């Protein structure tokens, strides 16, 4: 069976747990995601540990955000690990995004538009002209123009972003919660089925899977539900 288009966020406090989660979910999902918590604690070794023998795609979510020269150096430093995807903040601007794209030619650069943890009322406070849908659309268009081939947005904006950027761009949505699951610190959320129906290519799901007593079974259940809902 083809693995589901899900990136499991391995936000674990230690490497053993992350590698165990990766092993359990890998038969069911296409991708595992390494974020700041693991990377800052263990560094580059974490990539080989979670990739394991399966060779699953690794998404390195470092959300780089700095001046172009610094982001170029950082992207070069991790490009040798061959992550399939690397995140940068779209708010870093077009020159920064382009610097990342040029520094990591074998990795897909994903620009994070507006964090899924931000609610409409937060945008004004950080000085971002809203509403969220409009800010995401603006950042998405700018990022693609700067060379990003993937975008991160919430499921709420995915259909508008798809209409804006067309079919060639990979749309990645965190803020995904199966029916009945707690949204926790996520503000703009939808179900996996809805996110996919609205045009997402890859769903980022962490705690609804990794917080389960059986992460393998939780991943398998979401994957099966997505298959059932396919048109
Ligand atoms: O870039 C990301 O992956 C990301 C962007 C965003 O806007 N919101 C967001 O939640 N994420 C990441 O997606 C994951 C979501 O995890 P859960 O909320 O546990 O499903 C975390 O690892 C976040 O760092």
TrEMBL record:
Active site residues per record: 61 (for ompdecase activity), 63 (proton donor), 63 (for ompdecase activity), 66 (for ompdecase activity)
GO molecular function, one term: orotidine-5'-phosphate decarboxylase activity
Any one of the GO CC terms: cytosol
Chemical reaction(s) catalysed: orotidine 5'-phosphate + H(+) = UMP + CO2
Assigned EC number: 4.1.1.23
InterPro entries assigned to the protein according to its UniProt record, in alphabetical order: Aldolase_TIM, OMPdecase, OMPdecase_AS, OMPdecase_bac, OMPdeCOase_dom, RibuloseP-bd_barrel
Pathway named in the protein's UniProt entry: Pyrimidine metabolism; UMP biosynthesis via de novo pathway; UMP from orotate: step 2/2
GO biological process, one term: 'de novo' pyrimidine nucleobase biosynthetic process
Boundaries of every Orotidine 5'-phosphate decarboxylase domain copy: 5-222
Database matches in SMART domains: OMPdecase (SM00934)
Keywords: Decarboxylase, Lyase, Pyrimidine biosynthesis
Superkingdom of this protein's organism: Bacteria
Binding-site list for substrate: 11, 33, 61-70, 116, 177, 186, 206-207
Gene3D superfamilies: Aldolase class I
Oligomeric and partner information: Homodimer.
Family affiliation: Belongs to the OMP decarboxylase family. Type 1 subfamily.
Protein task: Catalyzes the decarboxylation of orotidine 5'-monophosphate (OMP) to uridine 5'-monophosphate (UMP).
Official protein name in the record: Orotidine 5'-phosphate decarboxylase
Species classification: Bacteria, Bacillati, Actinomycetota, Actinomycetes, Streptosporangiales
Gene: pyrF
């Amino acid at each position: 069976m083809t693995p589901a288009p899900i990136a499991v966020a391995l936000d674990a406090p230690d490497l053993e747990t992350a590698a165990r989660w990766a092993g359990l979910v890998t038969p069911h999902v296409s991708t595992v995601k390494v974020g700041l918590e693991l990377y800052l604690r263990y560094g580059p070794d974490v990539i080989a540990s979670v990739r394991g023998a399966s060779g699953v795609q690794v998404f390195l979510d470092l959300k780089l955000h700095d001046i172009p020269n610094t982001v170029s150096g950082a992207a070069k430093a991790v490009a040798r690990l061959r992550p399939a995807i690397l995140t940068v903040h779209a708010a870093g601007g077009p020159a920064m995004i382009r610097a990342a794209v040029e520094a990591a030619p074998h990795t897909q650069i994903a620009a994070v538009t507006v964090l899924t943890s931000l609610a409409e009322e937060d945008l004004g406070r950080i000085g971002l002209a809203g509403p969220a849908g409009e800010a995401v659309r603006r950042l998405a268009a700018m990022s693609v123009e700067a060379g990003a081939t993937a975008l991160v947005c919430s499921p709420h904006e995915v259909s508008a972003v798809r209409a804006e950027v067309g079919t060639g761009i990979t749309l990645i949505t965190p803020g995904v919660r199966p029916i009945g699951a707690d949204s926790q610190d996520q503000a703009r959320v939808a179900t996996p089925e809805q996110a996919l129906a609205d045009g997402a290519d890859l769903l980022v799901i962490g705690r609804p899977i990794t917080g389960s007593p059986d992460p393998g079974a939780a991943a398998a259940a979401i994957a099966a539900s997505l298959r059932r809902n396919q048109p």
